[in-house]
Amino acid sequence: MPKQVKNVASDDYLTAIYRMSHDEGQDVIAVRLADRLEITPPSVAGMLKRLMRDGLVHVDAKKVIHLTPEGLRRAEQMVRRHRLAECLITDVLKVEWWRAYEEAHLLEHGISDITEKSLFEMLGRPQRSPFGYPIPGTGAPRKLSMTTLADIGEGQEVEIDRVFEEDEQLLKFFDEEGIRPGVRVRLEEAAPYRGTITVRLGERTVVLGTPVANKIWVVPPAKGSSRETSS
Fold first, then answer.
1. Which of 43, 143, 176, 217 sees the fewest Cβ atoms within 10 Å?
2. Could you give the CA distance from residue 66 to residue 221 in angstroms, rounded to a whole number?
3. 74 burial class (0-12, 13-18, 19+ CB within 10 angstroms)?
4. Measured between alpha carbons, how far is residue 80 from residues 28, 36, 173, 199, 217 in Å?
């Protein structure tokens, strides 16, 4: 009999909690988790009871959900496999960058302990995913910048660190506009009452809504650096 993939549903919950807390700096509560997974709150409540019973999560007095050490280990294992699959899809199979998250989600549960090690070596031991996220267990830094494009001041130039990966249409927009990890952008104008910012990428400008700008994390400007005023 072929080996069966187990715990798919619980692993999806653990990785969602990991991404929301570790990658995005959010306090994870049941309502946010339900929204993220597009699942009804009662279904989330039932799964949380199961995860708590299995010692994978705990909920504090403020109803914030935390991974236990074993829950974190499981989440990092799945996130590592997912991000290695993204590298495989973009670097080897040459599938479009913006498709990689959804395609990797289909593959991650089929990667075993054996194939994971071989995949990591074959890919050249990557430390970051195509979307800029560190791959757990590879020696990549664990602490991430929580500064987004919406947080910087006019005239400041920054490097994109990572982009939100779970919205394929948004990734397609980023791809069309050249918004990728490693790209340098300069904030030309912030218009809070219009809810937009204008950034310069090379010789052209792009207007972004604030909700989109909040899904682009950047390497924060050095402390004490003055805002640029030249064009």
1. 143
2. 30
3. buried
4. 21, 20, 25, 32, 20
| Structure-token match 């990728």, residue found | 180
**Whether the model pTM is above 0.85:** yes
More confident residue, 188 or 228: 188
Residue 9 is which amino acid? A
pLDDT at 143: 79
Distances (CA, A) of 192 to 51, 59, 131, 150: 41, 36, 27, 10
| Residue ranges covered by each domain of the chain | 1-141, 149-219
Using one digit for the tens of pLDDT, what is the confidence trace for 72-107? 999 999 999 999 999 999 999 999 999 999 999 999
Q: In CATH, what number does 149-219 get?
A: 2.30.30.90
Chosen CATH of 1-141 out of 1.20.1250.20, 3.20.20.70, 3.60.15.10, 1.10.10.10: 1.10.10.10
Is 199 in contact with 205 (CB distance < 8 Å)?
A: yes
- Pairing type for strands 184-191 and 157-163 reads antiparallel
Transcribe 68-88 into DSSP letters.
-HHHHHHHHHHHHHHHHHHHI
Which pLDDT tens digit goes with each residue over 128-186?
A: 999 999 999 877 666 799 999 999 999 999 999 999 999 999 999 999 999 999 999 99
Q: What is the CA radius of gyration of the chain?
A: 19
